[in-house]
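Give me the fold.
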Amino acid sequence: MPEFFAERASQTSHNRPIGADRRLVIARSRLDVAKQIAHAHHATVNDVLLAAVAGGLRQLLASRGNPSRRWCCARWPTSLHQQQPEQATGNQDAMMMVPLWLGEPDPVHRLELIAAETAARKRTAHPQVTSGVFGLVAVQRATYRFQVHQRFVNLTVTNVPAPVPLYVAGARLLELFPVVPILGNITLDVGVLSYAG
């Protein structure tokens, strides 16, 4: 909670109540390229993903005539399975807030800033999303109502790895496309799924 409420996100043109219109954009890339970039800059694949999203968001806001923001805040779901191996049943997700440095024009320096920030934030505890008071249905409903007015998060970015080929009725699954649900006044979400490279 302290991390969530620590700073207010810069308000952008895509932070508004969600309407009836929806658009899904699909972009394909190769995991090995992200791994090479991450290795060359002592970062993780997730850091590379966040830096790419920050670069895209910087361009999007500029095309809309929005002033360049110093940063915006991404909600990044994280898995707690590695931290709690004895409880590895079902979903065990937490949320980490990550500033995306939109004001930094150099993509390499932007990646370095994000990598340093995520490394620091990983060292702090992140409670499970459905643990404690957040496990109560009444609290979850109130949270959904609050989402329309929240000013702490600009977008959600999530990455799910699926490293091995999957099969359905004997046929190899060729591609998967994640669809992240939008909620409240967060009209832009980025879902990434790495599948067999």
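The longest strand covers residues 72-79.
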